[in-house]
What we know:
4 domains; 7-stranded parallel beta sheet
Amino acid sequence: MASKKTFNDLGLSQGALKAINKKGFEEPTAIQAMTIPIMLRDDTNIIAQAQTGTGKTAAFGLPLIDMINTDYRTVQALILVPTRELAIQVSEEINSLKGDKDIQIVPIYGGQSIDQQLRRLKRGVHIVVGSPGRVIDHLKRKTLKLGNIEHLILDEGDEMLNMGFIEDIEEIMTHTNDNKRTLLFSATMPRRIKDLAHKYMGDYKLISVKEQLTSNLTEQIYFEVKASDKFEALCRIIDIEVDFYGLVFCRTKSDVDSVATHLIDRGYDAESIHGDISQAQRERTLDKFKKQRANILVATDVAARGIDVINLTHVINYSLPQDPESYVHRIGRTGRAGNEGTAITFITPSEYHRLMFIQRIAKTDIKKSKIPKVKDIISAKKRKIYDDLASIVKDKIDTNYYKWAETLLEDKDPADILAAILNYCFDEELNPDAYNEIKEIGSKGKRLDQHGGRQLDMHGKARLFVALGKRDKINPKKLVDLIISKVPVKPKHISDIQVMDKFSFITVPFAKAEKIVISFKERGQKPLITHAKKK
Length: 535
């Protein structure tokens, strides 16, 4: 079996290889391995049949960067794309790949100030990425000259055909020189595309990459939520699943840290990776995740490159991906090796059109769904507990447990004993009060509780003020002992304890907060414990 090619095998410059390494690419995709050497080796025209998500932009962008002559500030390459979103995306991707090379790239598209584009074009650019309509506008104004370009790249050819741009493309081609190289990328090859190639490209090399981008075993759904509701939505998705094992994608490093920290605060086994962590820490984290000692990994796109886990149940786009390729790469990590998987995307109402653009370009189907309700989560947890108990009953149980059971049942009603055991073991999981204070998805702002309009923390915690301090001979241990003596709360759930001279602060799950406040309230006296006031 032939070994896989690396980027070092493709003929790219050291500068390009350095930029690739910084981006986190580990090995070339099929379209990159086939296209890059041909582009660097000769002047052959190329038709490449490859879908979105196969790394097309880097396939033509990397060799293009190497071939641009920065001694001349003239347009040496034109990249035509069907939409403004793709113009921005392709421009940003090539910019991110250019490394230290002083290449000027400008996107031009409808909806952006033409005066701004004119100023940038006058300063001199090497690569123009544009939508057909706006490129024609500049050609008519004579503010864009294509008579000496060396490369014309048509990206998403079939999409431009579907949007009625073929005539515009043909008009643009009449403004270009005959000795340029033309590259056409298209997911499909309808007759009109072939006719265009035959008419304007002459001899060309055909490259075809047929990759299954989105597995048929991957269910793709999206939830429309407010930005402030995303974390709660994430928790409900995790809670409703029996064996959740998934990747959660965020756009920024700070988002990754925030989401992972709040998940850990709620008791989930979560880990995080992003560009600021060391390689050693990354390896430890990935090892822990692959061995399922942690079932949730929160990551940025770049940090997640190279993660190869075949049995993920979920990929969650906590932040909407920047482009269709990122979406395809993300969700491709579930539904693998014959396993079913679910890809979930959170969008705010204003992001709906971007999601539909991603769906159209990625040629996939993303269905709208509803966030699980609290009663559904409780029911799912009860079913899981019932199944687990039934499984234990089938196995051989230690006789000591039977003897203990007989002792417990001597003078008690069996239903009372069983209810007490369930309450003792699963109070935190099954108590509806743990969810009643959580605002329903889609409600406004912070939830006001039913006991006086106090604001509760969005992420499941409440901060309490205690009118006891060091002068009362109180320390953290004594404070915890005092609270658990009156309220059935576990010591580990009392956190972030601050004991000052005259008072103290504690943080508890908000399902327990009101019980603690009420338990320490005495008629006619100033309350000993109250909700802390917001600064």
